[in-house]
Each structure stands twice: as C-alpha cells, then as structure tokens.
Amino acid sequence: MNNVDERLAKCFRLVFPNLDADQIPLANAENLSDWDSVAQVNLLSVIGEEFDMDIDFEEFEGATSFAALAGRLREISARA
Amino acid sequence: MRLSEALQINQQRVLPNAGNRKIHLVCGFTPLHLETFGLAHAKRRFPAENVNITSGLFGDLEGNLKRAREQPAEGAIVVVEWSDLDDRLGFRAAAGWSSSVLNDILQQVDGKIYRLTQLVSELAGEMPVALIAGTLPLPPLTHLPLVQTSSFELQLRSNLIGFLSRLAVTRGVRLVNDSTLARSSPYPGRHDVRMELHAGFPYTIAHAAAVADLALECLFPAVPKKGLISDLDETLWKGILGDVGVAGLSWCLDGHSQAHALYQQLVASLAESGVLVGIASKNDPDLVSQAFQRSDILLKATQVFPIESNWGAKSESVGRILKAWNIGADSVVFVDDSPMELAEVAERHPGVECLRFPSDDPAGIIELLNQLRARFGKSEIREEDHLRLQSLRSSAELQQSRSAEASADFLSRLNAKITLEYSEAPSDGRAFELVNKTNQFNLNGRRYSESEWQSYFRAPGAFLVTASYEDRFGPLGKIGVLAGRSEPEALLVDMWVMSCRAFSRHIEFQMLERLYKRFEAACIRFSFHPTERNGPLQEFFARFFDAGLGQDGLDLPAAAFVKCRPQLFHQVIESSHE
C-alpha cells in the first residue's frame, strides 16, 4: 500500500469498524451494506481531516469505492 | 476533539453487565457529526456505561420533541437553529425575501416559539434538558448593508431571547451559555454551508464538537467543589501585611491592584452561594483580624471560616481547615501566589486542587476567575447553602461546649427541634442533591440520575422523608434524607444519608424512631452496603449488630433498635405532603 492508500484505509477503519483489513481495498457501496449516504458523508469528513483538506462533495460525486476515492485523492494531490 | 478521535471512542465496547444511559438528541437538521460527538463526549464522561444517543427526523423539531418525551431517557439535548423557527431563515429554502415575506416570517416565528416553549417545558417535566439555540448566522435577508442591524433581525433575536428567558426559569431546563460556546467555537467558524446544502447538516466539525461537549456538560454537570482555601498576601490583597501594615494593603485601580479586588469579589460571591471559604496564611493573626476590619474589604470576615494565620506550614493549616469543614480534600481548591506553597500543599494533600494566583499577570486573573466559577458554579442555590457556614461555626461551638459537659446532659439542653417531612413525590431538589453528594453517613453510596430518582418514586409504596434540624446554636437546614418502600411483608429503606454537619446530635436515631412508629414496622430492612467512605454509617449500625454488619443488607427489628438507642431529647414536628 502507498501512503494515500494507507491513510485512506485508516479512514475506512474509523467509519466501517466491522470491515476486515483485507476487505478494505475491495470495499465499495455495492458490497458494503453499511455504506449509505450518511456513511459517505462521514467518510468524506474523516478524509478531509486526515488529508487536511476542505472536501468538495461534488468532486467526490460517484466515488463510492476505496479504489475510486484513492484515485480522486491522488489526482487532487497531483494538482496541488 | 477531532472527528476521527470521536469515531474511535465510539468504537470502544463496554462490559456486558454495564448500566445503560440513553440520551435524546433533538434537532431539526440531520444530526450527523453532532450525534457522533455527542456519543463520544458521553462515552468519555461515562466510560463504564453503555451510552445510546437517539435522534429524530429531519425537519421535524416539534415532532422530535414530542417523540422524545414519550421515550424515557437520562436527558435530552435540544438544539434550535433559525431554520427550525422558519425554513426561510435557513439556507436550504428559497421563497423570496420581500418585505411581505419578512413580515410573514415574523408571524410564523411567533407561533413556532410559542409551541416550542410548550414542548420543551413538557419534555423537561420528564427528563433534564440542555437547550442551545441560535448559534448560526442569519442569511442577509433585508435591504440594509451588512454593517447595519435591521429592525427585522432585532425582532427575531428579541423573540429568541424571550423564548430562552422563559425556559431559563423552567424547572429541568438548562441553557448552554452562549459566551462559553463562543470561547470554544468562535462565531465565524461555526457554519458549514457546503455541508448544509449537501447533507442538511449546518455545523462545521469544530462547532459540532463544541456544541456536543457543552450540551453534555450542561446536562450532566460535574459535582461542584465545596470549599476554597485562599492565601492572603499577594493573593487576597496586594502587599505583605507584616511589611506594609493594614493601611498599606491594596485592592483597587489606583493601587494597581484591581486583580485582587476582582478576586475578592468573586470569592465573596462564592461564599454567598454557599461555598466554604477558609484562609491559610503565614501571618500574624492579630494583624489579619485588623485587615479584615477594613471597611473597603470586599470579602467580609463573616464570610470566612476558619482563618488559619500562623507561621507554620501551609499544609498544616489546610489540614486543620479540612478537619473543621469535615469534607474530603477532593472537594477543595487552594489558591496561593507562591508556587512553593502550592507544591507543599499539593504534596501533603494530593486531593486538593491547587491554583496559582497570577499576581504578575493581570490578564491571568480572568482565567483564574473563570476556573473558579467553573469549579464552584451550581445551577441552584438552596436555603442550606446560606446556612452552611453558620452551621459550621455552630458545630465548632457545640463541640467546644460539649467537651465540658456529659453528653446526655448536654444534648438535653440543646433545645433541639427536628422537622420530618414525609412525601410520595420526589420534587425536593435538596433531597436529590444530598443523596448524590453525601459520602460518610450514606447507606450504600449509590448515586441517582434525575430520571432514576423520578422513577424510584413511581414504584408503589415509595416514600421520602427529609429531616431539618435546629437548636440553640442555630439552624442546620435540611440535613437528612431517607427513602424507601412500604411493602406488605417489610419496610424497606434504600437510601439514607445525613450531612456530616449534623453528626453527634442523635438525629439519625430520631429519624428511625419515628419511622418505626409511623409505619408500625416490626423490622426495617436496609439496603446497606459498606463503602470506603461510609465509616460513620457503619459505626452507627455496629451498635445494633454484635456479630458484624456483613456486606449487603441489614434487618433491624424494632425491639433491637429501642434496646440499643440512646435517650432522645428532640422536639419532633412531623408533616406529610402529597
């Protein structure tokens, strides 16, 4: 795991405490019943705290998997 | 607290046998992070309990208040924002801001506030309520430039203040202080417009954390400290009494010693609210006595007991004051300007909280005043708070007089009067307070939340007895509480406490004497449990049980009680309230 993935996994552990560590990289809103709209807002808020950024919800629209979120975060960090 | 920290705390599991604490979070917006922080702060306060926070439906504050009332809980946090008074005062509605709309908003807010006042009052009749309102900014609704306040906004604020003022004097409602909130959550950092529009949650994470923390503190306040011990030189006043003399001491603007005046003012105010104030000073006692006679002193000698002025160690003075007050060190704060004296007292009395008087930092005094208010502040001042100091002085006189006379003779000449009040309703705030703060003469050390207290007296046959006392040395006020249940096979006593100020007067014997008679009980079953601190209660029972007290429960037959109780001399007045 690279640095973004590790930090993102930490956010997942906080919002989805019942998720096994090896399941985190595979997690998405389809296969995880706890991942509802409230969990999405919680997750993005924790990501905002972890990555010290103001979350633009529209920028993360549709990012409902670990892989998609990691991808968006890498894009943002590349732009910065 | 950060959101990640709150989520981590919320994941901590509690033992399966732990008690449950349910708290309602009542608001009209999505509770989201406010609920997360509420749970985290509650879990921190009650780490040995299973805490559960329930919230309601989006946009239905009134309905949420009604539903909360129907579900018993330990308390409710009620949050009212402008958009709860009228959608058009929030940022998620767009219905125009014309003058006719603004007039309509004012009318709607009037009606809404009327209904909310009713609903919050009704909820507070069932459980304690912490209320917080209007923490967010209003949108720019009027034609005025932002620098100017509109009559419309003032009318809205006036309505809100009227609402809060009415509820501030409603039993069971505690308002979160807006100035305190502003210190932990400054106004510009409160509103998260993006989150409000996206998720219906209007608070920044920092504001949600601050609101949750203060609301819970308001709902479950810490037990206030009971006594303040203060140094004199460079603390209560500026100057060294032995060097500058009484006239050379100062506490005023002209003497560049206003910090000491502010401190005196606060200590006097604490004394007035029933806080015990003592002095520990390395000084000449005669000079100290003269200094307290100065007409401009704000803390009067009559508000202080005892004054320990001598040349011995401060810790020894503090020890004598604790003995005179008969309270635990952990209920006491010691204030001195000298770090060395503070360290010496802290080493000998680790329970005493030691605070430094910032004699070299005028701004620091404000922080000290806030710290003292935070530790000694209480929601309600009772008659007993005014009597406490006088009764301690009386007790000291009583002990002195007693040592010169045989005990029974002495007690027979006290002209003691005990008033026993029996009731079936738990409306007595003093009784609740005594049960929850008394350690030494306490049947089992059990503490009750407000809802547990209410629920106890809903049981069939439950009763409450309070005892007030006075004698020729003065009144002690309400000093004893006993609660139990009258059941067909036995009289059960589940709570029994007596203030330590009332020891040595045989009040406890008289309370039981009357209880046996009133209920015609052949035996009383006490829910006794020994604790580390209820030695005086154990000592009381030991005289009736030669074989020892055991760990749980005591049955005391009336005959055994009468055989072993001393002769009683009180005049007793009994009354009943429904």
How would you characterize this protein structure?
The complex is a heterodimer of chains A (80) and B (578). Chain A contains three helices and no strands. Chain A is an all-alpha fold and 80 residues long. The model of chain A has no long low-confidence stretch (mean pLDDT 88). Chain B is an alpha/beta fold and 578 residues long. In chain B, strands 11, 12, 13, 14, 15, 16, 17 and 18 form an eight-stranded mixed β-sheet that branches. A five-stranded parallel β-sheet of chain B has the order 2-1-3-4-5, with helices on both faces. A five-stranded parallel β-sheet of chain B has the order 8-7-6-9-10. Chain B has 22 helices and 18 strands. Chain B has three domains: 217 residues, SGNH hydrolase (Rossmann fold); 150 residues, HAD superfamily/HAD-like (Rossmann fold, 3-Layer(aba) Sandwich), CATH 3.40.50; 195 residues, Aminopeptidase, CATH 3.40.630. In chain B, helix 3 runs parallel beside helix 5, helix 5 packs parallel to helix 6 and helix 10 runs parallel beside helix 12. Chains A and B meet through helix 1 and helix 2 of A and helix 1, helix 2 and helix 8 of B.
Helix content of chain A: 40-55%
The CA-CA distance between the termini of chain B, in Å, is 47 Å
- Total helices of chain A: the number is 3
Structural shape of chain B: globular
CATH architectural arrangement of the largest domain in chain B: 3-Layer(aba) Sandwich
> What is the mean predicted local confidence, pLDDT of chain A?
88
Would you give the CATH topology of the largest domain in chain B? Rossmann fold
Gyration radius of chain B, rounded: 28 Å
Report the structural category of chain A.
mainly alpha
Rg on CA atoms of chain A, Å = 11 Å
Report strand % of chain B: 15-25%
The outline of chain A comes out as globular
Query: Biggest β-sheet of chain A, characterized?
Result: none
Briefly characterize the structure.
The complex is a heterodimer of chains A (80) and B (578). Chain A is mostly helical and 80 residues long. Chain A has helices at 3-15, 37-50, 66-79.
